[in-house]
Amino acid sequence: MVELSATASGWSVGYGGDTLNTAIHLARAGHEVAYMTALGEDTFSAHLRTAWAAEGIDGDLVLTHPTRNAGLYAITTDADGERSFTYWRDASAARALFELEVVDAAMAQAEAADLFYFSLISLAILPPQGRQDLLLLAARVRDRGGIVAFDGNYRPRLWESPEMAARMRDKAIATADIGLPTFEDEALLDGARSPQAVAAHWQRLGCGEVIVKLGGQGCLLADGTPVAVPKTLQPIDTSGAGDAFNGGYLAARMRDAGIEDAALCGHALAGWNVMRRGAIPARDEAAPYTAGATISPQ
User: Fold this and answer.
1) Most-buried pick from 66, 183, 204, 248 (CB within 10 A)?
2) Portion of the chain with pLDDT greater than 70, in percent
3) 290: confidence class by pLDDT, cuts 50, 70, 90
4) Which of 72-86, 133-147, 216-230 is predicted least confidently?
5) Cβ-proximal residues to 150 (8 Å cutoff; 6+ apart), any chain
6) Burial (0-12, 13-18, 19+ Cβ within 10 Å), 135
7) What CA–CA distance (Å, rounded) separates 226 from 40?
8) Cα Rg for the chain, rounded, in angstroms?
9) Longest dimension (CA), the chain
């Protein structure tokens, strides 16, 4: 989506979205990444295509809707860097992705992915048939030997009910090899009482590799190992922090790093992200990744 981010002098225009943020981090880390979505024929959609290409994203799976446009959201942050969002996305092109005639060809391409990553927000914005199509695509990737990663990113306003959100989350977990839930989201959605309970629930549903994100407290691995954030930070903007963690973690795992080392890579990238404004800050010299190399946990 198009992103408006509040600044001292007004608003800056960028782009963001949970799965997009992670995709860009993976591309910056040197992986070959394609992003599957739909945009319109409007000026903002054209800008998004150009910007994503400049980040190294393959746009072959970015489909075009003939009448809908790109979505829009605005970020505001409080004194502690905690963010809040305002959305204008009800008629976005992405919501109608699986209604496009060319989506079958795009799905066939996506099935061959080494890693297929989606989130609960991906499911939330789709109509019922689109949700089923997305879950079917994830299952097909897994059946063909690809790795499926799923983030249980819960935004109550996007769902018709918490019960439906929990039902779709559980169906998605059952398709996944790697689970990236956030404890705060899980507690809000269905009252999860501990990170350990979250990990156990996801594993019972068939997702073997689960990393429960705990914000500034680090994360918990499925075997009960806590992985702390390397250093304490005073965030400027927490937008995209979880997405950055996912990007760092998955980038490392796809280069065969161990789970704990990958979690440290995730923390390093999330720490860099929250010290800059916007969900996907411009890359700079301090960014803890280099093209073609595993993200360093230092």
Assistant:
1) 248
2) 96
3) low
4) 72-86
5) 117, 118, 119, 120, 138, 172, 173, 175, 176, 178, 179, 180, 207
6) middle
7) 43
8) 18
9) 51
Contact 5, 278 (CB under 8 A): yes
Residue in the structure block whose two tokens are 């009448």 = 67
Residues acting as catalytic residues: 243
| pLDDT value, residue 283 | 92
Please, is 92 exposed, middle or buried when counting C-beta atoms within 10 Å of its C-beta (0-12, 13-18, 19+)? buried
| Structure tokens that stand for 11 in this block | 């608003």
153 vs 236, residue with greater confidence: 153
Check whether 126 has a pLDDT greater than 80: yes
For 172, the enclosing helix (H) or strand (E) is: helix 162-173
Instruction: Say if residues 163 and 193 touch (Cβ distance below 8 Å).
Output: no
Sequence letter at residue 62: V
State which amino acid sits at residue 247. G
Give the bridge partners for 33, in sequence order: 57
Using one digit for the tens of pLDDT, what is the confidence trace for 35-65? 999 999 999 999 999 999 999 999 999 999 9
Amino acid identity, position 86: T
Residue 91 in 3-state DSSP? coil
Element (H, E) at 261: helix 259-274
Q: What is the pTM of this model?
A: 0.91
Residue 229 pLDDT > 50, yes or no?
Answer: yes
Q: Which two three-digit tokens encode residue 76?
A: 């505001």
